[in-house]
Amino acid sequence: MELVAFDLDGTLLNRHQRLSDYTLETLERLKSAGIFYTVATGRTHFAAMPCIEGHDFPNWQIFKNGVEWWDPKKNTYRHRSLLSQSHISELLSSFEENQITPFVFCLEEDGSHKVYHSPLTGHLSDHIANELGNHTNMSLHPISELSNRSKITNISAMGHPTRIDKIIEDSQKHSHLTAYSGGGIYNPEAFWLDIHHSNVCKGSALMELKAEIGAEKLIVFGDGDNDLTMFSHSDEAFATENALSHVKEAASDVIGHHDEDGVAKYLRKRYDL
Is residue 211 within a helix (H) or strand (E), and if so which, with residue range? Predict the structure, then answer.
């Protein structure tokens, strides 16, 4: 039995941040073939939902680089290695200095989600706030209301790459934090940033899932820095043509471009779909 895992942005999704018709049909064929597959993305569950619309991924889905798991059959979450306010308090000043709005995602006791943020600093933070505000199980709050009892899953943000890099540099001073960034796929000036506890990553999450289902092999597809941990834990790792050069070097092989159904074409050939 094989466990197959896909990154989303720059990998399974096209340039419109959606699954193409060809990819949707391929996934249905993969399901019919009895292959165990899932997504492993840096996106939150809510942010991923509109992107994967059109296909019901049947198994545990991994979000926030392994912090958040979602079981679509039971409609339940799992969460790993949460942060506290004290874990991030010093880092928040770096966001302010670099004029980037942090969005701090928190898990409530009733299973709902609250997101705390500082004043919005431009169209990118406006876009995030508008997107988050459309979810019924999520509410937005000023960061001044963030409690020291809050259970923080991650911090997300978007901004110019030079400013994002400065925040990453500051985050590296804290051993309990891991920061990933990437961008330029949809807007060259808009890079995303995700910060979470260093005890969790895509690789460790997939190894846990692999053991849980009794899979013998782990096969992964990705394009960015946050995919390298699952590359290192996998039996086979495939980078898309558009991937960063060092990600391609870490892969077992390089396949087609994410906007040309590279993953789907490879799956059809490998599994004779």
Answer: helix 202-213
- Give the list of residues 6+ apart from residue 57 with CB closer than 8 angstroms, or none: 27, 37, 38, 39, 72
- By C-alpha distance, which of 199, 253, 260 is closest to 222? 253
Helix (H), strand (E) counts: the chain: 9, 14
Q: Is the dihedral of CA 138, 69, 187, 167 positive or negative?
A: positive
d(CA 146, CA 167): 20
Structure tokens at 39: 């997504």
pLDDT tens per residue, range 63-107: 999 999 999 999 988 998 999 888 999 999 999 999 999 999 998
Rounded Cα distance, 39 and 51, in Å? 12
Cβ atoms of 239 and 247 closer than 8 Å: yes
Q: Residue 93 phi/psi, 5° resolution?
A: -65, -30
What number is the average pLDDT over the span 210-233? 96
* 273 to 29, 70, 146: CA distances (angstroms): 6, 27, 49
Rounded CA separation 239/62 (Å): 19
Half-sphere exposure for 69 (CA within 13 Å, toward CB) = 20
User: Phi, psi at residue 152, to the nearest 5°?
Assistant: -95, 125
How would DSSP label each residue in 27-75?
A: HHHHHHTT-EEEEB-SS-HHHHTTTTTT----S-EEEGGGTEEEETTTT
Report the chain's mean pLDDT, rounded to a whole number: 92
What value does the mean pLDDT take over residues 30-51? Answer: 94
Q: Of 14-23, 115-124, 126-135, which range is least confident?
A: 126-135
